[in-house]
TrEMBL record:
Reaction equation(s) it catalyzes: 2 GTP = 3',3'-c-di-GMP + 2 diphosphate
Cofactor(s) for this UniProt protein: Mg(2+)
Gene3D superfamilies the UniProt entry points to: 3.30.70.270, 3.40.50.2300
GO CC terms: plasma membrane
Protein keywords: Coiled coil
GO molecular function: diguanylate cyclase activity
Top-rank EC class of the record's enzyme: transferase
Listed name of the protein: diguanylate cyclase
Entries under Pfam families matching the protein: GGDEF, Response_reg
Organism: Moritella marina ATCC 15381
Amino acid sequence: MKILIIDDSKIERVIIRSYLQHLDHEVFDAENGETGIAMFAECNPDIVLLGVVMVGINGYQVAAQIRDKFTDWVPIIFLSGKTAPEDIMIGIEAGGDDYLPKPIKKQILLAKMTAMERIAAMRTQLLQTTKKLEIANEELERLATLDGLTGIANRRHLDITMAKELARAKRHAQPLTFIIADIDFFKKYNDHYGHIQGDECLKAVASILDSSLRRPSELVARYGGEEFCMLLPNTDIKNAKLVAEKLVNAVRSLEFRHEGIDKQAIVTMSFGVISLVPSRDVTVKELMLQADEKLYQAKENGRDQWII
Ligand code: GH3
Ligand code: MG
Ligand code: MG
Ligand code: MG
């Protein structure tokens, strides 16, 4: 342990040093409060042994300043000839952890130091555990935003982001584009290839949609089943059309065979697109319904296309 002794009596400092001498401690000492505080910052002690009556600032003030300036807790034990109950009270209230009357008995000092060391070790362990929990919590929070199968954003994250982005678009009177996409004839795909391969297809589709929209503000989420949503802040109709065309082609470019339809067929997707500068009364639900309506039209119109 690193031990800092702050006491203006040289004899006292020498005596305490002698008590600690044969133990494996590194001992620093200061002859007044000001030097003691400076030394505290410098040597980063594990424990402070602090006199009370000193020239300049007294021990109570030293303890209070240490507690005030340094957030990390270090045990402080007062060593003082002032032993009235109120002295002890003041010392503890100032930030001390224990209070030993002078003349100091070696065994008592060492025993009290051991107790403080134990508390400090428990505290360190607790801080480490807290840190680990914080990291684990962050990871859990991140995982809670992801879809288990495809690894892209999930419905929950989509709902939260949509509410936020809709509010932002309203606030800044900016355009917002929202897209719902649905794989064409996916039931037939599952029927033909089985659900395991169906899942592979979902992963590939999610991945190509996700990598087609790379701006940090753009969100691709799995809405559920074989339906995906895309949210593009600050994107107007003109750009929305370009994006939709790009997405239709991106899914085609996977060239995922779909013999459940016919020998030459590949997996395609239909997209319902809406783009608007939202007025104050527009809701997330309305955006969803409108995009869904466009998606329905794309399906009716022969699939493998976008409708805005
Ligand atoms: P349409 O072109 O009209 O969209 O036809 P569709 O067959 O794709 O539409 P429908 O909604 O009837 O079928 C969706 C299918 O998606 C049914 C379901 O078995 C499948 N599906 C939903 N979630 C999953 C999943 O997580 N994994 C797999 N493999 N299939 C899924
Ligand atoms: Mg569907
Ligand atoms: Mg469907
Ligand atoms: Mg479908």
